[in-house]
Amino acid sequence: MEYRGKKSLDIMKTTAKRYNQWLVTQVKNHLKSPILDAGAGNGAFVELLLKDYLVYAIDQDLELATNLQKILPKEKAGYGDIEQAIYFFNKKKFKTIMCFNVLEHIKNDDKALLNLYNLLSHRGKLIILVPAHQWAYGEMDKEINHFRRYSKDSLKNLLENNHFTIISIKYLNMFGLLGWFVAGKIFKRKMVSAGQIGIFDKIMGLITILEKRIEPPVGLSIFAVCQKK
Question: CA triplet 67, 98, 52: central angle to 5 degrees?
């Protein structure tokens, strides 16, 4: 299946470098090799992890999956469909799976989570990031083929129903939610511009300080760490 948000991925990779690094710092304490980036897109997070970890990457879009092989060896990157449990590797298990901004693109997210569970080794961890708050669903969600946005309760229930033990779950990026809502819901824009992302990335230091001190009650995303029983 072709992914419609490739331009947005490229903007985020080149313009939101502080934001991407911030997300990686959120997961550092939970990462163990081998790691699978499930739905790796253009490899923005793969490149941040490569120096310290053994990383594999899959994507459901054939073009993106092929391009991942420019970052990783062919035996570590390729096609993967977590909804249908079709992968380029053979029966491999992972100590950590990262699934960032992927689940919302999958019609049967329940099935996809069970398949991710089966890819984890004993006591392995799934680190997941999904868009938050269905009331913020707007034109930008439609443009990049989001089926839904999540609440903490809906994601928690989904994870627990698929046998995961939740270690932590929280909202991230309250200021990003405001920008997303205004652009996509009020002004009906289909994409955030590179300039807007650049401005946001420049204030990441302030956002980081604020969200370290006070856990936001709402956010652009929900970040969850869970473990295979």
Answer: 80
Class for the domain spanning 6-228? alpha beta
> 211 and 23 in contact (C-beta within 8 Å)?
no
DSSP class of residue 184? I
Out of 130-134, 149-153, 208-212, 221-225, least confident range: 208-212
Domain positions in the chain: 6-228
Residues 6+ apart with CB under 8 A from 172: 23, 26, 129, 211, 216, 219, 220, 221, 222, 223
* Phi then psi dihedrals of residue 41, to 5 deg: 60, -125
150: tokens are 């999540």
Q: How many CB atoms lie within 10 A of CB 188?
A: 11
Task: Give the tokens for residue 54.
Answer: 């053994």
Beta-bridge mates of residue 97:
36, 126
pLDDT value for 128: 98
Over residues 212-218, the mean pLDDT reads: 90
Q: What local confidence, expressed as pLDDT, does residue 2 receive?
A: 57
Predicted pLDDT at 188? 86
- Classify residue 170 by its DSSP letter: E
On whether the CB atoms of residues 208 and 22 are closer than 8 A, the answer is yes
pLDDT band at residue 1 using 50, 70 and 90 as cut-offs: low
Half-sphere exposure of 94 (CA within 13 A, CB side): 29
